[in-house]
Amino acid sequence: MDKTINLTLKIWRQNGPKEKGRFETYQVSDISTDSSFLEMMDILNEQLVNENKEPIAFDHDCREGICGMCSLFINGRPHGPDEEITTCQLHMRKFKDGETITIEPWRAAAFPIIKDLIVDRQAFDKIIASGGYVSVNTGGVPDANAIPIAKPAADEAMDAASCIGCGACVAACKNSSAMLFVSAKVSQLALLPQGKVEAKRRAKAMVATMDELGFGGCTNTGACEVECPKSISIAHISRLNREFLRSRLSE
Amino acid sequence: MSILNSKIPEGPLAQKWTNYKNHQKLVNPANKRKLDVIVVGTGLAGGAAAASLGEMGFNVKNFTIQDSPRRAHSIAAQGGINAAKNYPNDGDSVYRLFYDTIKGGDYRAREANVHRLAEVSNSIIDQCVAQGVPFAREYGGLLDNRSFGGAQVSRTFYARGQTGQQLLLGAYQALMRQVNKGSVTMHTRTELVDIVIVDGKARGIITRDLVTGELQRHFGHAVVLATGGYGNTFFLSTNAMGSNGSAAVKAFHKGAMFANPCMAQIHPTCIPVHGEFQSKLTLMSESLRNDGRIWVPAKKEDAQAIREGKLKPTDIKEEDRDYYLERRYPAFGNLVPRDVASRAAKERCDAGFGVGTGLAVYLDFKSSIERLGKDVIEARYGNLFQMYEKIVDDNPYETPMMIYPAIHYTMGGIWVDYELQTNIPGLFAAGEANFSDHGANRLGASALMQGLADGYFVLPYTIQNYLADEIRTPRMDTNAKEFVEAEKSVKDRFEKLLNIKGNRSVDSIHKELGLIMWDFVGMARNEKGLKEAIKKIEAVKKEFWTNVRIPGNKEGMNVELEKASRLADFLEIADLMARDGLNREESCGGHFREEYQTGEGEALRQDDKFAYVSCWEYRGEKEEPKLNKEELVYENVQMLQRNYK
Amino acid sequence: MSNFLTSSIGKKFIMSISGLFLMMFIVVHLGINLLLIFDDSGELFNLGANFMATNPAIRIMEPLLALGFIVHILWSLIVSFQNMKARPTGYNQSKNSSNWASRNMLVLGCLIFVFLVMHIYNFFYIIKFEYQNLLEVDIDGEIMHDSYSLVAGLFKTSVTYCILYVVGAILLGLHLGHGFWSSFQTIGFANKLWLKRLQVIGQIYAIVVTVGFAIIPLYFLIKF
């Protein structure tokens, strides 16, 4: 059951945001195919520490596919060669013995590199801060069952809300567009009566911030949907377009 | 004992919180702007508190070690959140939620706190719905509920298997709204490295910028720690890799009491350990126990054959299966509380009936799939099944899942009074970081409830009672000697760590500590083992401080240095956990002492001797910590032996 | 409105509206052109072409159409330039999970533009500005240019042109295969259900256009 493989890793290393990066090649051996991709990276880092070299910096946290912290562009795909998962859920059984794996950071003007494989995704927070919420304060809200919500609408809102903010959509898009991310939040809140109230204002503000931060525009290639670990549909982008047009045409 | 005044308000239990709110001091709007509140952590408790305090008009400074507040580990909670709404009309009430939580906690929580928690639970659901949290709904458009361990009513609200995510994003969005308004300043990738005490009051923190390595000083009229639990002391746990107990240790070193450190929850349904390289354990939601049946082979030879790969679980006939939870606890069956389910699994595996590596039991959906159809099961648990399949490479629709208990949550934490204030004035603790509401065991779907209760509805009130007396305190210059000294000691500590230049990586030492903890301070503990653990932890501590290797330097991003600093603190907690476990000569909830069990192997409390909160006081590096006791007074509930049969 | 047009979605909206307009034109254009193969005498086509040349509504549409092309081309350059800026450093290795046409709309557009120049030079330019060289025919008493001979003549005599026109039709089909549903998506006319439907309709539309246009030169090449 426990199979092991040997691998060559071609990894992007960059000391700091302003410094020049380069690819470095590493070898790891006897990696169990039952281990996760990040556990393989842990093994490599352990190896580097033992050689008194600086380990590779990469973002990760929950390691169960929900926090959205892990990234990595593995063999040409965000979150690597498996469907509907994040890098931390990728397992080594997806790789062959002797294979060379290329690991790169997310590439986008709006996601500058901090170190090695870590990029700065605060642009996403800025987009949410500009309008990705329902403007209610704590307390003084109606009973939870006061407004019935049709199940299909609630379910579709949940589909959109499952976005983990990892940035794979931006990484996969040839335009580094954040439209899937923005549309997921706009769509979720527009579908619910609580969010509908300020839907126009929200779409306008979030799109303006997205544009300001240097993300590209959407050309409907659909790569984002394919690479999204939560399979968020680009139908939400159409809803965003609709909400945005509505907001602009009503002024 | 004056330092341990729990400040429980007067009056009958159900009136205490109302009475408190009616008589507490408030801060007027003009003064709120002049008061700085530091909130460390952006999870359910921290994020909700920062957002709420910002909305009220306080000047909030919020800190997280992650790149975004949305990454906090609250996000990983799967199953749901409890509330006493009684929407399903199955007899639920605030009292019943209170009672279930007290009983579930094995009578080691404070009545008044728990009752308040049950009281505000309904407001949480209202608040989240208003924020746009897409809870599961029925076709009629109203909210759906599911049942959870330790309760006989359906009171758990959920959003697929991602309830924690949705609640956290609700709080995160409220928080980002305040960031946009300027009432909250967000410091991401910034770690608390010390707490600054001025004239006996918490007045600020020292932080390290994890990108530049720079140390910074921040002033606050009050400091709130909402930094989560310390489950990662065990290295392997269901916590996120970055979850740590450092803030709690900093508070402890500055004089705050550490309460009930030994009370750690072992979650029964996690994916079993599969190798040495393993970095963390993945939880499979407790909600699975609604439709899954737990079993092991009834015959040892079958278990043996399964372990050797000669038999498959589907080969075992119905009559040869031992559904041990249903057998032992007919009333609650597969829905017994977590501690009970975990111990039962360990008992079967220790007796030689385990499957997989020997440390696993089956969670089987066959009868539910037959009864409800695959579609229903897929709609309920699809994402969990997918998650399982990705990790284990096995299809749970066809073969039963393998599960085993793992460290999940820590009920113990920083001691707080009714106001969530520690014994250091101005220092507050909320959410998992404090010890207050779950006693010796937490029921499923109650962590989210407590985090949000503290953050939205408790702390924003109680902190004003303190801040009302601080309106004359001007913002302090962070060049004051207390700040400078704190920063210097932090700097010295980092230099000391970097100068060890030993031979072992941080992780290798952490794994060693984890094994000691699991073996001696894990699911079953005894006097001999705990004494040995204390010695072994001491040895690992020595090894760490003399032989750890941290490449790189203190400038710039240095992940190994971060990990080393946290491990140094886990070592302190490990010692406290073992000491506390040794002191508590009884079994209760998550703390199971083998010497104290009933003839049937159930936990046996010693209410006459241990109906208290153990509060550990730091007395310096060389001295052993001192035990203080906060007696638990039960005025409304009678302490009984828990019975789920 | 001004910042609407400069927003990323606004720019795409312009691409979408001009694209939808051009797609309507293509339908009309294809309809008239197919008359070429249904009547070898050329009468039907000449009537159609004459109608298009003399109808007052078409006189208004002609500059609008030109404007449609110009806007679609200019904005495509603006959009593409801005999108390129969004990724200053590319990947070393990239497996694209989108289809080729969707990623290469600009390339396809440029090639179609080259084709368009040739096409205008071949027919539109001659009919419009060098009509004195054209033959004239008398259909039911009305004297008109014999556009049929112009088109038929080109395809009957030049295999190269036939191939170029077939290639042009394929390029256009690829462009439309993505462009059709994409323009509906951009104006917000799509949801989970309609997204798939529009993609199917778009494919059918693209195939009809490609086959429709490609069949004309092939018809003349094979038949004559």
Describe the structure.
- The complex is a heterotrimer of chains A (251), B (645) and C (224).
- Chain A has 251 residues and is of the alpha+beta class.
- Chain A has 2 domains: 4-104, Beta-grasp domain (Ubiquitin-like (UB roll)); 122-249, Orthogonal Bundle (Fumarate Reductase Iron-sulfur Protein, Chain B, domain 2), CATH 1.10.1060.
- Chain A is built from 9 helices and 7 strands, in the order E-E-H-E-E-E-E-E-H-H-H-H-H-H-H-H.
- In chain B, helix 5 (111-131) packs across helix 13 (447-467), helix 15 (506-520) packs antiparallel against helix 16 (527-547) and helix 16 (527-547) runs antiparallel to helix 17.
- Chain B has a 5-stranded parallel β-sheet, with helices on both faces. A 5-stranded antiparallel β-sheet of chain B has the order 11-15-14-12-13.
- The mean pLDDT of chain B is 95.
- Among the domains of chain B are: 267-408, Succinate dehydrogenase/fumarate reductase flavoprotein, catalytic domain (Flavocytochrome C3, Chain A, domain 1); 481-611, Up-down Bundle (Methane Monooxygenase Hydroxylase, Chain G, domain 1), CATH 1.20.58.
- Chain C has one domain (2-85, 103-223): 3 helical TM bundles of succinate and fumarate reductases, CATH 1.20.1300.
- Chain C has helices at 2-6, 8-38, 43-54, 56-85, 100-103, 105-129, 147-157, 159-186, 192-223, and strands spanning 136-139, 142-145.
- A two-stranded antiparallel ribbon of chain C has the order 1-2.
- In chain C, a hairpin with a 2-residue loop joins strand 1 and strand 2 (142-145).
- In chain C, helix 2 crosses helix 8 (159-186).
- Chains in contact: A-B, A-C.
- Chains A and B meet through helix 1, helix 2 and helix 3 of A and helix 3, helix 5, helix 6, helix 12 and helix 13 of B.
